[in-house]
Each structure stands twice: as structure tokens, then as C-alpha cells.
């Protein structure tokens, strides 16, 4: 199986590179990912639950990054075992290209082979499942990138209100702790 495509990312190349090396972000974005654990330099253990056609299994696998050229590219070698469902292994070349101040194009090509029950499903279903997983990954990956790039709420938009002028009821207008409590209550939405 071979899967090749590009994806536009609404961030700089440096931010895209950092995100591609952030295991917590990747865990959020990979469909069915239950964990990514670093087991050595550029070596990771991954647990993913995946359904390919009628076969659903928990795959335990290893990822290794090779040919790392920050902030431009790396090669990812992977292998996984899904028990009776089968196994898979392959590689993916990932390359980032800056296309603007806050625009980056991610190019990728993945090659994989599968065995066991998964291989009996047929290459068409496997290709469709892989394309669906890639689409879901990039939708979530891009959404998380955008969310992380959102500026924090500012005082001018009313999200956080400085309560230095007002006091809580019952403090007699004396200020002090009443001012701090009023600000905190509004901050956490209980004021």
C-alpha cells in the first residue's frame, strides 16, 4: 500500500515542526491512539485501536525517526502487531515546506505492508481505511494547531474582568480581601 498527499497547515514551518515532534499533540490527533511513549532517542512505543473493514484490533507498535533534518524533514519507520487481526510495517517520508509567514505545506508518502486477517480484507478496503485515518488525523492535527495558536483572552474582550473597582457584597466597601475574592469569582465564572 502507498499513500501520498500534501496538507496545508496554518502555521509557520518552525511551529509545524515542533508539533510533529510533540507526542502529546500527536496522541490527540492520531485516530484511536491510546498512548505514545518515548523508549529511547527518537524511538517510541505506540498503542492504537483501529478498525479496518470488519476487523477491529488494538495494535501495539514501534516508531523510529530517521534521517532527521530540522525543521524540514524526517523518515518514520513503523511496525505494529494486532494479535489475531494481523500486523503491519512500513515507512513514511515527511517533509515541510514554508509557503508563507504562517503557512506551511506538509508533504508525506507512506509505504506499508500488512499481514494476517487484515491482509485478507483486500487492498481496496485497506487503502480506504488508511485514507480515512489520514484525513481524520490532519483534521484533528490542524484543529489542535489552530487552538494552540489562538491568543489568550485579553482584558479588552471581556473574558477576564479586573475587579479592582468593585468589592464583594458584605465587605462594607473596605476593599482588601473582598476585591481579591470578587476578581477570582468572576475569573472562574462564579461572580
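^ C-alpha cells above, recovered residues below v
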Amino acid at each position: 500500500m502507498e499513500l501520498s498527499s500534501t496538507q496545508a497547515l496554518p502555521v509557520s514551518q518552525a511551529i509545524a515542526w515542533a508539533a510533529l515532534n510533540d507526542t502529546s499533540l500527536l496522541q490527540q490527533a492520531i485516530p484511536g491512539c491510546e498512548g505514545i511513549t518515548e523508549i529511547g532517542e527518537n524511538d517510541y512505543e505506540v498503542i492504537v485501536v483501529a478498525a479496518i473493514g470488519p476487523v477491529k484490533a488494538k495494535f501495539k507498535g514501534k516508531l523510529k525517526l530517521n534521517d532527521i533534518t530540522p525543521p524540514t524533514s524526517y523518515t518514520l519507520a513503523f511496525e505494529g502487531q494486532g494479535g489475531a487481526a494481523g500486523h503491519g510495517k512500513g515507512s513514511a517520508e515527511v517533509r515541510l515546506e514554508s509557503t508563507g509567514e504562517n503557512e506551511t505545506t506538509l508533504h508525506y508518502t507512506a509505504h506499508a505492508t500488512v499481514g494476517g486477517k487484515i491482509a485478507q480484507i483486500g487492498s481496496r478496503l485497506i487503502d480506504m481505511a488508511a485514507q480515512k485515518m489520514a484525513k481524520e488525523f490532519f483534521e484533528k492535527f490542524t484543529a489542535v494547531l489552530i487552538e494552540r495558536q489562538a491568543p489568550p483572552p485579553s482584558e479588552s474582550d471581556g473574558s477576564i474582568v479586573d475587579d479592582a473597582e468593585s468589592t464583594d457584597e458584605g465587605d462594607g466597601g473596605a476593599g482588601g480581601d473582598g476585591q481579591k475574592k470578587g476578581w477570582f469569582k468572576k475569573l472562574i465564572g462564579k461572580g
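Strands lie at 2-9, 33-40, 43-52, 55-69, 73-81, 87-100, 103-115.
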